[in-house]
Write a structure and sequence with these properties.
This protein is an alpha/beta fold. The chain has helices at 22-32, 51-57, 68-77, 113-121, 136-142, 153-161, 201-211, 219-222, 229-234, 248-260; strands spanning 18-19, 39-43, 61-65, 83-87, 102-107, 127-135, 162-170, 175-176, 183-190. The chain is elongated, with a radius of gyration of 21 Å. S-adenosylmethionine (SAM) binds next to strand 1 and strand 3.
Length: 261
C-alpha cells in the first residue's frame, strides 16, 4: 500500500509561506499570461500552488527548489517531460543556462529576496520578463522615485536594468502560514541595453553602495574615496546633494565620468 502523503511543515529557514488563496493564485497566473511555448522558470515551487496552474497553460516548465522534501513531492506529482526540476539554491543558479527569452516567476522566499534580486539582475540579457511576489515594502523600494524615503540602492540598481511596475497587493491571509506583512506582485521587464549604458557596471555598483552607505550624509562625504567636489560638479552633481536626490541617470553619468578619468 502506498504511504499516505504527510503534511508538509513549513520551514522558516527557507522562507516558506505557501499560497492558499485561489483568487490570488488565479490573478497572478493571469498577470503572467503564459503562452504554451513560453520558456518559464519558477523559483521556489513549494507545494505547487503556482506550478500546477502554470502547467495547465504551458507545454513545459522549469522549477528551482532547495527543499528536498518538496522536491520529492514534485517528482511524484509531475512527469519529467512537463516539469524539469533543478535541485538547489536559486542564489547560485545559472539562469542563462536554460536559454534566452526567459520568463522568470515565483512567490519568492522573503528571507533572501534582496540578494536574489541582485543575482537575477545579472541575467537581464537572457530574460523577457519576471513576475514576483515579494514583501510589499521591498516592492515599494524597487519602484520608488528619487527624492522619496523608499528610494535606495535596490531602486537604483534594479531601475538601471528593468522597467518595473507594482501590480497588486496581497494580504497575509492569502498564505499559510501567514506572513506578518503585506505582500505585492511586481513585474520587471529588462530595459533595452542602450537605454542606460554604464561603461563599468562594477564601478556603478560600488558608487551606489557607497552613496547610500549613510543616506543622511552629503555625497561629497559618502563618495570621498571615488571623487572630489570638483569631480562631482564636473559631472553635473551638487556635492551637497544626498544619495536619494539623484536619479539612475545621474549615477550612470557619474560612473561614466569616473570610468574615463
Ligand atoms: N511557490 C510556493 C507557493 O506560492 O505556495 C512556495 C513559495 S515559498 C514563499 C518559497 C519557496 O522557495 C519554498 O518552496 C522554499 O522551499 C523555496 N526556497 C527557499 N529558498 C530557496 C533557494 N535559495 N533556492 C530555491 N528555492 C528556495
Amino acid at each position: 500500500m502506498k504511504e499516505p502523503i504527510k503534511e508538509h511543515r513549513a520551514r522558516k529557514r527557507f522562507g516558506q509561506n505557501f499560497l492558499v488563496c485561489r483568487g490570488t493564485i488565479a490573478r497572478i497566473v493571469d498577470a503572467i499570461a503564459p503562452r504554451r511555448e513560453d520558456r518559464v522558470v519558477e523559483i521556489g515551487p513549494g507545494l505547487g500552488a503556482l506550478t500546477e496552474p502554470l502547467l495547465e497553460r504551458l507545454d513545459h516548465l522549469h522549477v528551482i527548489e532547495i527543499d528536498r522534501d518538496l522536491i520529492a513531492r514534485l517528482h511524484d506529482r509531475f512527469p519529467p517531460e512537463r516539469l524539469t526540476i533543478h535541485e538547489g539554491d536559486a542564489l547560485d543558479f545559472d539562469f542563462a543556462a536554460i536559454g534566452g527569452d526567459l520568463r522568470v516567476v515565483g512567490n519568492l522566499p522573503y528571507n533572501i529576496s534582496t540578494p536574489l534580486l541582485f543575482h537575477l539582475a545579472g541575467f537581464a540579457a537572457s530574460v523577457r520578463d519576471m513576475h514576483f511576489m515579494l514583501q510589499r515594502e521591498v516592492v515599494d523600494r524597487m519602484v520608488a522615485d528619487p527624492g522619496t524615503a523608499d528610494f535606495g540602492r535596490l531602486s537604483v540598481m534594479l531601475q538601471y536594468r528593468f522597467d518595473m511596475e507594482r501590480l497588486f497587493v496581497v494580504p497575509p491571509g492569502a498564505f499559510n502560514p501567514a506572513p506578518k506583512v503585506d505582500s505585492a506582485i511586481v513585474r520587471l521587464i529588462p530595459r533595452p541595453a542602450v537605454a542606460l549604458d554604464a561603461r563599468d557596471e562594477a564601478l556603478l555598483a560600488k558608487l551606489v553602495l557607497a552613496a547610500f552607505g549613510q543616506r543622511r550624509k552629503m555625497l561629497r562625504n559618502n563618495l570621498r574615496e571615488f571623487v572630489d567636489e570638483a569631480g562631482l560638479a564636473a559631472a553635473g552633481i551638487a556635492p551637497t546633494a544626498r544619495a536619494e536626490e539623484l536619479g539612475v541617470a545621474d549615477y550612470v553619468r557619474l560612473a561614466n565620468a569616473l570610468a574615463t578619468s
